Structures are given as C-alpha cells and as structure tokens.
C-alpha cells in the first residue's frame, strides 16, 4: 500500500460483521502494512449486489476469499450462510487472527489456507467456486494482473467475481461486468464468468 493511500484511508483496529448469523460480531484488525479491510459501505454494497443476483440465498454457495487479510469479506459471506468459504492469506499474524475468529464462532464451513495466492491458485486443479473475492494489496498491480489471468481455471459458468483495486480494472472478455462503483481510493466491481464466451 502506497504512502499516499495509507494517509487517506485510516485503518480501523476492529470492524463489525454487517449482517447474518454473526451480525455485529467484532472482527479485530491486526497492525500490518498494506492491510486495508474493505469499508462497511463497500461491503454493504457488494453484499446487496450478491443478494440481488442470488435472491438472498447463500446456502449452496462456495466462496473463495483470495487475499483474506482481516477476513471481512469471507466472514461476511459465512455469516450470511455460505456453504463453504475458503480463505487464502500468507501473513502468519493474519492467518492466526483469522483462525482465532473462526474457531471462536465455530465456523466449520470456513477453511484457511496459509499460502501465497499465486501458489494457492496453482494447487486448485479441480476447484470451482460460486464467488471469488479479490482484494489484493493496492500497491501490487502485477499481482492483480496475474490473479486475473488465472481466474478461468477456477470458475464455472455463472461464477461471480468481485474485484477491489486502486486503479480501474477490466477482466478478460469472458467476464461480464454486472456492477461497478467507487468509494474513496477504491474501485470495486462485480463480474460474471461466461464459459461460453469466445475469446
């Protein structure tokens, strides 16, 4: 995260789950460079979008939170009833905090993968998800590009992909843009994967 962005976006020490079974549960935010939990307003907008496209039913959904960080997005999905949530996070302190919150709230549907996102993607040979959450460190645009290129291998027809970035983002042609918005320094998007699209 760049110095300019870190000055304009203060980092809270804790955030709250917005809705679902964990509503108002406090999620601690550990002090790590580049860790920027998705703000309440952006999370609320995202999950309003998802509620619209899924008719409010998360119960059969499989979710991948590829840069979990504080876990704000993945735990929000779990709170709303997602069947399976897989989080990927490489920093040991962040991983420990994620596991502590998961175990405290007995979230058996949440798995936490303590690997680099690029390595985790290579190991997901047969995994397919209903929702993929991508919010990489703002300063690493190359990481977002690499991740985007690997997406088709873990998508199925109709997979929704959320992307949050400091710069404007456009996914490959087979991803249809459904929604987009901007809040402060963050651009955020919801795409849908079309396996029948010709590229």
TrEMBL record:
Q: Which keywords does the record carry?
A: Methyltransferase, Transferase
EC number, UniProt record: 2.1.1.171
Q: What class of enzyme is it?
A: transferase
PROSITE patterns in the record, alphabetically?
A: N6_MTASE (PS00092)
InterPro entries attached to this UniProt entry: DNA_methylase_N6_adenine_CS, RNA_MeTrfase_RsmD, SAM-dependent_MTases_sf
Q: What Pfam family is a match, any one?
A: Cons_hypoth95
Q: Which residues form the signal peptide?
A: none
Q: Name one GO molecular function term.
A: 16S rRNA (guanine(966)-N(2))-methyltransferase activity
Keyword Metal-binding in record: no
Q: Which PANTHER family match?
A: METHYLTRANSFERASE
The name on file for this protein is 16S rRNA (Guanine(966)-N(2))-methyltransferase RsmD
Organism of provenance:
Oligella ureolytica
The opening ranks of the lineage are: Bacteria, Pseudomonadati, Pseudomonadota, Betaproteobacteria, Burkholderiales
């Amino acid at each position: 995260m760049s110095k300019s962005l870190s000055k304009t976006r203060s980092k809270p020490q804790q955030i709250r789950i917005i809705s679902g079974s964990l509503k108002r549960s406090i999620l601690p935010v550990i002090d790590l460079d580049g860790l920027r939990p998705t703000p309440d307003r952006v999370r609320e907008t995202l999950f309003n979008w998802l509620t619209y496209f899924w008719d409010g039913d998360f119960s059969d959904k499989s979710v991948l939170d590829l840069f979990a960080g504080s876990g704000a997005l993945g735990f929000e999905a779990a709170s709303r009833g997602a069947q399976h949530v897989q989080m990927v996070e490489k920093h040991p302190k962040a991983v420990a905090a994620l596991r502590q919150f998961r175990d405290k709230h007995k979230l058996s549907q949440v798995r936490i993968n303590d690997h680099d996102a690029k390595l985790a993607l290579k190991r997901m040979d047969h995994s397919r998800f209903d929702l993929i959450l991508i919010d990489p460190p703002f300063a690493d645009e190359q990481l977002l590009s690499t991740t985007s290129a690997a997406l088709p291998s873990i998508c199925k027809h109709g997979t929704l992909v959320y992307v949050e970035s400091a710069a404007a983002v456009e996914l490959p042609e087979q991803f249809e843009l459904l929604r987009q918005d901007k809040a402060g320094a963050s651009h955020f998007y919801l795409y849908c994967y079309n396996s029948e699209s010709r590229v």
